[in-house]
Amino acid sequence: CHSLWLTIFQHDGTLQVRLHGSLSNVLEKKNHKTFKFINSPLRKYCKTMTCKSFFLFFFSSRQDVQTCTTWKAPIIWQGMFKPDDYDQEHKSQGSSVALTVFAIGRYLDVYLKDFLDSSEQHFMLGLPVTYYVFTDTPEKVPNIKLDPQRSLKIIQVERHKRWQDISMMRMKSISDQIESDIRHHSTHVFCFDVDQLFTGRFGPEALGESVALLHAHFYRLPKWLFTYDQNPKSSAYLATGDFYYHAAVFGGSWRNVKALADACHKSIMEDKQNNVEAIWHDESHLNKYFWLHKPSRVLSPEFCWDASIGKRSDIQVRRLMWAPKYYNKLRIA
């Protein structure tokens, strides 16, 4: 998220403009009406801009939604970016992505194949991607036809008796895999729940140092309705926050995802020692973490939408959809 503001004043009968903010180093003033880009990819769009066209160029993409956090992190919505630019930027930087997904018990049978098939159609196309499938039944992982530069690794994990423990203990598995493997091969990590389907582009515009997702059911609600953990005995206790984040999708550089996973696992284990369990398990701990360590990029709910909410004018594209939930049949008590 870039910032630019202008100080406009009159001196000796001449209109003067002074540039401030993060974009001031990519612009130089040609005269009192016109600017030109210097040392910036923005030069490809136009060599010079008037003051009026500059503001139209940068600030008119989406007026109906919040596009920047109070700490200046971008909130990514359709219409805010040029896909080709992000594709070329990350290809030139050599970005590569590890996708982690847990398919335990019957979740593998019901969801995994469709999840992987849809990912091959929409997730980070053009970049090297390695799937890390964590499962208790490696022999049941389906054979998926993968495009070049894409591979799949299977990691056997323990099947816990309670689904809550499966959800919470994934943080340790993610951290361990980053340390032993991912950090040597991938620049970024994205962690997904398996009961979802990619339905539209989910590209490098989502990549960042630390990436959080706005929960589709909470992004329009006032903060007092956010379901943060309100138990002061829990390490996930949070009286207030910035947004309510969804643990179905989170990511970032491998270093930042490992730091998140380590911190959440530490908090979960502290709660277990104190015989406490956060109200929404790892999601409660994730929201506490992002309150203390602000994400550098926030994904709008179009990156994980629930069709049961219905149509909304601000959701112009649905990139990832909740699959039908069968909690009573699939979850271990």
From TrEMBL:
Binds 1 Mn(2+) ion per subunit. It is found in: Membrane. Its cofactor is Mn(2+). Mn(2+) binds at residues 193, 195. UDP-N-acetyl-alpha-D-galactosamine binds at residues 102-104, 107, 193-195. The keyword Thylakoid does not apply. It is a single-pass type II membrane protein. GO terms for molecular function: hexosyltransferase activity; metal ion binding. Keywords: Glycosyltransferase, Manganese, Membrane, Metal-binding, Signal-anchor, Transferase, Transmembrane, Transmembrane helix. The active site is at residue 283. InterPro entries: Glyco_trans_6 (IPR005076), Nucleotide-diphossugar_trans (IPR029044). An alpha-L-fucosyl-(1->2)-beta-D-galactosyl derivative binds at residues 215, 227, 283, 306. SUPFAM superfamilies: Nucleotide-diphospho-sugar transferases (SSF53448). GO terms for biological process: carbohydrate metabolic process. It holds the Pfam family Glyco_transf_6. One of its GO terms (cellular component) is Golgi apparatus. It comes from the Eukaryota. Belongs to the glycosyltransferase 6 family. PANTHER family: ALPHA-1,3-GALACTOSYLTRANSFERASE 2 (PTHR10462:SF33), GLYCOSYLTRANSFERASE-RELATED (PTHR10462). This is Alpha 1,3-galactosyltransferase 2.
